[in-house]
Amino acid sequence: MTLDRVGPGPELTAHGRLADELRRIGRQSGLDAVGICDSRPFVEARVAIDERREKGFAAGMQFTYRNPARSTDPRATMPEARALFVGVRRYVRQDPSATGISGPAGRVARYSWIDHYGPLRAALGQVAARLAEDGWKARVVCDDNALVDRAAAVRAGIGWYGKNTNVLIPGAGSWFVIGSVVTDAPIGPPAPLDLVADGCGSCHRCITACPTGALVGPGLLDARKCLAWLVQAPGVFPIEYREALGDRIYGCDDCQDSCPINLRSERNEPAPAAEAGSQPTVDILWLLAADDRTVMNAVGRWYIPGRHVGSVRRNALIVLGNTADAADPAVADALSVALADKDPIVRAHAVWAAGRLGLLDLLQGVADDPDQIVAGELAAVGVSSNTRGSDTGGSDASGWP
274: domain range? Predict the structure, then answer.
């Protein structure tokens, strides 16, 4: 699948020929769709970010919310910027039927089965290298705080903003990672491109499919409810959304899985087989037993706040509580280890998991845990201690150091 958008004009200039060459390089390097646009600030995106942050919808997300003045203005990345070359890479793959996991398994969102941003950066790097050959400045930006990737893709005519907040590409859907090359080369179209028409119409399946109601309106996400954000957020996982997390260890694809455009595109262009090393699921008992370095080697491509493995184990314990067989001795053993973890966040979620599985006998030995977060979880499952003092320990409910 390819989709290229070019500006008007019957005869290409030298810069137009360079733009065409860059499109060819992008496609040959593995990009599924490309577009080029000017480097004006993304004013509408800045307004949207500010409004959503003011309403609290951003929760604790950083990313492009951290510094909107930078992320919505390509010239903050490169003062001489004239154009953006935007490319996307399709990441949907067939789900391998055999996992090899006999116990509880955590489901991983499709974009994180394997690193898809590495090949995207490499393809964009080929485009940047060609620009550099002619003496132009070029910088690859993707999956960081430097640029609102979706706004660039929309302006470049690649797709439209879907109701699920993702960019949807006509006939292809939203299973894409997005990146750009910021350059001072004057390769942009002579006039702004017409935006791709909204193809969602009256459909609202993504909104109704969201397991927590995080899509509070068309294209409007309240991150405080979004499972994909909550598994990345530091600190205590909100108790009201733990059961809704189900078996998800990282990410949530429900709004994309329910999209008719995605479903049709997968029928018309079946997904290729998953690459070797893809990780659609994670062995939960292994994850809870492995040392920190081993866990990071296995899942370090995930966004892990502060690179603190405790957040991964926190998520694993919620999956354990939602999916494990309480009669399995290995489950009780894993919970016992987690209940003695040095990290109070891990201990707190182990308490919840034990309570959810009805293994309250495991909690008797930890009823005097002095940490306030753990104490709150113990009280919530009906375990209390008269000897617990006023010293609430040193944990911080907002997250880790």
Answer: 229-380
Rounded to whole angstroms, the Cα distance separating 216 from 56 reads 13
Residues 151, 34 share a domain:
yes
pLDDT digits (tens, 9 = 90+) for 143-174: 888 899 999 999 999 999 999 999 999 999 99
Q: Is residue 393 part of a domain?
A: no
**For the segment 4-46, what is each residue's pLDDT rounded down to a tens digit?**
554 444 445 788 899 999 999 999 999 999 999 999 999 999 9
Which of the residues are catalytic?
Answer: 143
* Residue carrying the six token digits 């903050």: 76
Together in a domain, 56 and 152: yes
345 domain-assigned: yes
Domain-embedded: residue 304: yes
Decide: residue 284, CB within 10 A, 0-12 exposed, 13-18 middle, 19+ buried.
buried
In a domain, 58, yes or no: yes
* Structure confidence at residue 389 (pLDDT): 43
Nearest partner of 303 among 108, 120, 164, judged by Cα = 108
Q: Are residues 30 and 159 in the same domain?
A: yes
Number of domains in the chain: 2
Which among 157, 183, 209 is the end of a domain? Answer: 183
DSSP 253-293: -HHHHT-HHHHHHHHHSPPPPPPTT--SEEEHHHHHHS-HH
User: If you write DSSP's letter for every residue of 64-132 in order, what string do you get?
Assistant: GGS-HHHHT-HHHH-TT--EEEEEEEE---PPPS-----S-EEEE-GGGTTT-HHHHHHHHHHHHHHHH
d(CA 180, CA 86): 4
Q: What is the chain's percent helix, strand, coil content, to nearest 5?
A: 40, 10, 45
Residue 115 shares a structural domain with residue 251: no
Strand 138-141 and strand 215-217: the pairing is: unpaired
Burial class for 37, CB neighbours closer than 10 Å (0-12, 13-18, 19+): buried
- SS3 state of residue 397: coil
